[in-house]
């Protein structure tokens, strides 16, 4: 069935398909382990000294109990829905959250940090957790897991877990194009290749640490984020094509890396998870998915806000986030995340449902 022929109730149908995947999976994947940026951070930044936080209302207003968790969303994020689809926990906890322990992390954990990137210089902008540090946390996690489960069971979790990586947008929008430094060192193509090299090194290190099932996430259509559209006054506040083209080009390079790494490393099963196309469809044909607003975000005035600028004191935040593709100027709503998650599970992660 063509997407354009589907009714606005598509969201309900897709959620039902996630529930079907839960039934057929039967717990084949023992844990989901996450690295990346704000797209997959469920609250690690709450526990480090940075302004890149969202542990206040209205963030989390549609989460369980209506509480802000540190997720840059009105509710759940994509990895939470993926975890649910694999019959695991309904929400993935943050590694630095002291209210959780290794018994919670044994079936799912995120080391992600909002505002980070592949490039260490990106994480330095807002003093967040760089990828290398996330990997160090993961090594500590392995030690705790072995102490908790014993070597044999822990090794089974490590080799059987699904590793999700979602990072890269900040390298371009918050670093290369926003501040002087990298743009004087590299052309944009050279910088893309520099980042792909870091991605290759990171996935190789994960492999050496026992990871076998890896999802390398692509970039969204960055030029369609409200932050970029609001600034595109000369272009009538439409999507910025140059940023979208850059994201598509970079995704092509990440996909090529996945193919190369799978050939290089015995037993590696890496997939490329691409949110670009499905998110662009939601933006271009919102009614198909039950959305009404794509150009601006739900939070505050819907233009430049994210983080502390999206606060409960602002009277402009929308009443129903499900009508909006974007929650703040940079991040999608819970509903958008659920649709992206279902698409990713069906089109990239399905092979792991039966392994």
TrEMBL record:
Gene3D superfamilies per record: SGNH hydrolase (3.40.50.1110)
Keyword Signal: yes
Signal peptide span: 1-26
InterPro entries for the chain: GDSL, GDSL_lipolytic_enzyme, SGNH_hydro_sf, SGNH_plant_lipase-like
Keyword terms, alphabetized: Signal
Pfam families: Lipase_GDSL (PF00657)
Stored PANTHER family: GDSL ESTERASE/LIPASE EXL3, GDSL-LIKE LIPASE_ACYLHYDROLASE
Homology family: Belongs to the 'GDSL' lipolytic enzyme family.
Name recorded for this polypeptide: GDSL esterase/lipase
Organism encoding this protein: Gossypium mustelinum
High-level lineage: Eukaryota, Viridiplantae, Streptophyta, Embryophyta, Tracheophyta
């Amino acid at each position: 069935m063509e997407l354009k022929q589907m009714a606005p109730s598509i969201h309900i149908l897709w959620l039902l398909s996630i529930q079907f995947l839960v039934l057929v999976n039967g717990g084949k994947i023992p844990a989901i382990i996450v690295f990346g940026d704000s797209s997959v951070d469920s609250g690690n930044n709450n526990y480090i000294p940075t302004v890149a936080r969202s542990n206040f209302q209205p963030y989390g207003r549609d989460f369980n109990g209506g509480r802000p968790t540190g997720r840059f969303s009105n509710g759940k994020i994509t990895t939470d829905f993926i975890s649910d689809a694999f019959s695991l926990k309904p929400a993935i906890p943050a590694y630095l959250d002291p209210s959780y322990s290794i018994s919670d992390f044994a079936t799912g954990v995120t080391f992600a940090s909002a505002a980070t990137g592949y490039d260490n210089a990106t994480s330095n902008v807002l003093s967040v957790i760089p990828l290398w540090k996330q990997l160090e946390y993961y090594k500590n996690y392995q030690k705790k897991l072995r102490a908790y489960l014993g070597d044999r069971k822990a090794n089974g979790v490590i080799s059987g877990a699904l590793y999700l990586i979602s990072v890269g947008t900040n390298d371009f929008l918050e670093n290369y194009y926003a501040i002087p430094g990298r743009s004087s060192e590299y052309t944009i193509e050279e910088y893309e290749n520099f980042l792909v090299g870091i991605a290759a090194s990171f996935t190789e290190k994960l492999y050496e640490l026992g990871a076998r099932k890896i999802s390398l996430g692509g970039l969204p259509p960055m030029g369609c984020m409200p932050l970029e559209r609001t600034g595109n006054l000369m272009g009538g506040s439409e999507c910025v094509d140059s940023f979208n083209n850059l994201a598509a080009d970079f995704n092509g390079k990440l996909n090529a890396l996945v193919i190369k790494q799978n050939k290089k490393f015995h037993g590696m099963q890496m997939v490329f998870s691409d949110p670009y196309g499905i998110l662009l469809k939601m933006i271009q044909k919102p009614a198909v998915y039950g959305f009404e607003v794509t150009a601006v975000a739900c939070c505050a005035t819907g233009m430049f806000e994210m983080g502390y600028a999206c606060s409960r004191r602002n009277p402009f935040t929308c009443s129903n986030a499900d009508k909006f593709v974007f929650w703040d100027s940079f991040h999608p709503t819970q509903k958008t995340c659920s649709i992206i998650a279902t698409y990713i599970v069906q089109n990239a992660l399905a092979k792991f449902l039966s392994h």
